[in-house]
Design brief:
Elements: E1 8-19, E2 22-33, E3 37-41, H1 48-55, E4 63-68, E5 71-73, H2 78-83, E6 86-89, H3 101-105, E7 113-114, E8 117-118, H4 120-133, H5 149-161, E9 167-171, H6 179-194, E10 198-202, H7 206-212, E11 215-220, E12 223-228, H8 236-244, E13 265-271, E14 278-282, E15 287-291, H9 298-305, E16 313-318, E17 321-323, H10 328-333, E18 336-339, H11 343-347, H12 354-358, H13 363-366, H14 375-389, H15 405-414, E19 423-427, H16 435-450, E20 454-458, H17 462-468, E21 471-476, E22 479-485, H18 491-498
Parallel strand pairs: 3-10, 3-11, 6-9, 9-10, 15-20, 15-21, 18-19, 19-20
Antiparallel strand pairs: 1-2, 1-4, 4-5, 7-8, 11-12, 13-14, 13-16, 16-17, 21-22
Length: 504
């Protein structure tokens, strides 16, 4: 092997890719070394996913060269790249919901066959081993569709690892994971690195990048605008400024000065199968953060308020009136709106264009005689929401499924704007979106609360929780473990509370 490719798994030189006359990648070069982590950062739409798809055989470059272990290659298919040692954990999961965990882990993996029969014993044993290394214990016979999003994401990672790749590409693989789950994933990654595996890590979570990466490449508008291989001399502000042109400190808008208004929402001793004796107060014009490790009850609270889970005890009031969360329709009529954690399966109709998704929650108000839609009112409503969310007119008829994650999330939020909601329930509203879109979402939330809306927001990102919340309730083992406000909203106290500790 020539010295140019020594210790190198995959190299790309002068990669160019265009779609419909738009230059998506502009002479990108990248060098991925054994036992090292290269982080790719950039806005949604910067070209990261396109580059990953070329490296892994899902797309062909218009020009440029690829070298794998020193030999020039051109992957004919993703399966060919996978068989040669390049495994990808895509941002959008590729699991089979009607198959059990162990079959998903080894889906398409011919190494598990004996003749024409699946070696199910080996599949179960190896699946269990991989999942244990990733820090989860699952019934291997459970259908994947019955798992939480975080559990599904871990199964997807195990599926990639089962190929024993020489290059593992993690595209927003931590977006649904909490702090503890991320640490277990990183421990697993370090084992792979010690064995010589190379990793490409794509994330919008800056602390994770600095923890796991050896090198960082910044992509903007399809071109490399920054490369850092001495991260001890680099700050989060340096990376954000390179990507966006502003600093971390400016991402979170100034918090509102809240008047002590009567609560718009209260729960007293609220209990379900997963939460116990939860009592909270939410005032108009406040953003209330709900923190904790995934599965400790904060997401359950949102689902219960929105009529998706059954109440077993306690009471709820909205605007001082008793509220019984019987179903989603009653929740909407009572003034709730809900942004779910999985925008693709719960938040959007991917086969409908943007404009139709924007008014889908207001169809009752838009209906006229015999259920026919008032098309003039619908168009006026769509245009108003579009302008408020700053959606590009050129994309307006585009199918929702073809949008970037950030633009999809705007639509999920925007579809509620004309429903007359009083309380906005949001579960991981910035999952998998870039820094610029996060900033837009935060500004929009501040606009809403300035108008008297109350927001309940679940986030596993500690910095987000602190940056956007006026008060924070931390959940632990299904109960409210701590309420933090004012000077108590700091990283130490939030972290202590999330781990079930009191701190000082």
């Amino acid at each position: 092997m020539c010295t140019e490719f020594e210790n190198t798994v995959l190299s790309a030189k002068e990669i160019v890719k265009s779609f419909g006359g738009l230059d998506v990648l502009k002479h990108i070069s990248i060098n991925i070394k054994k036992g090292r982590v290269l982080a790719l950062v950039g806005e949604n739409g910067a070209g990261k996913s396109t580059l990953i798809n070329i490296l892994s055989g899902s797309l062909q470059a218009d020009s440029g060269e690829l070298y794998y272990e020193g030999k020039e290659i051109a992957w004919a298919t993703p399966k060919k790249a996978l068989q040669n040692g390049i495994a990808v954990v895509h941002q959008e999961l590729t699991l089979f919901h009607n198959l059990p965990v162990y079959e998903n882990v080894f889906a398409g993996n011919s190494a598990t066959t004996r003749g024409m029969r699946l070696d199910r014993a080996t599949m179960r044993a190896e699946s269990g081993r991989l999942l244990e290394k990733l820090g989860v214990q699952l019934d291997l016979n459970t259908l994947v569709g019955e798992l939480t999003m975080a559990q599904q994401q871990i199964v997807e990672i195990a599926k990639a690892a089962a190929w024993k790749p020489k290059l593992l590409i993690l595209d927003e693989a931590t977006s649904a994971l909490d702090t503890v789950q991320v640490q277990k994933l990183f421990a697993f990654c370090r084992e792979l690195l010690a064995e010589g595996t190379a990793i490409i890590f794509v994330s919008h979570r800056m602390p994770e990048i600095f923890e796991i990466a050896d090198e960082v490449m910044v992509i903007k508008d399809g071109a490399t605008v920054g490369f850092y291989d001495q991260l001890e001399a680099v700050t989060e502000n340096d990376l954000v400024n390179c990507m966006m042109g502003y600093t971390v400190e400016t991402i979170y808008p100034e918090k509102n000065v809240n008047e002590m208004r009567p609560p718009i929402l209260t729960t007293r001793g609220l209990s379900t199968k997963k939460i116990h004796d939860v009592s909270i107060e939410v005032r108009p014009g406040e953003i209330i953060g709900l923190g904790g490790l995934r599965g400790h009850g904060q997401e359950e609270l949102l689902r219960t308020l929105f009529g998706l889970e059954s109440v077993t005890g306690g009471e709820i009031t909205i605007d001082g009136n008793a509220y019984e969360a019987k179903n989603v329709q009653k929740a909407i009529r009572s003034g709730f709106a809900y942004v779910p954690p999985d925008r693709k399966t719960e938040g959007l109709v991917l086969t409908l264009p943007i404009e139709e998704n924007l008014t889908i929650s207001a169809l009752r108000d838009l209906s006229r005689f015999m259920g026919r839609i008032n098309l003039r009112r619908e168009k006026a409503m769509q245009n108003e929401v579009r302008d408020r969310l700053r959606i590009d007119q050129r994309q307006y008829r585009q199918l929702a499924g073809r949008l970037s994650g950030g633009n999809q999330q705007k639509i999920v939020i925007g579809k509620w704007l004309k429903s007359g909601f009083k309380v906005l329930l949001m579960d991981e509203p910035t999952r998998g979106v870039d820094v610029a879109t996060k900033h837009e979402i935060y500004l929009f939330l501040r606009e809403l609360v300035a108008q008297g809306v109350a927001v309940l927001l679940v986030s596993t990102e500690i910095m987000e929780l602190m940056g956007i919340s006026d008060r924070i309730y931390i959940f632990y083992e299904g109960r409210v473990h701590a309420e933090l406000k004012g000077a108590d909203i700091n990283e130490e106290k939030v972290t202590y509370a999330i781990m079930g500790l009191k701190g000082e």
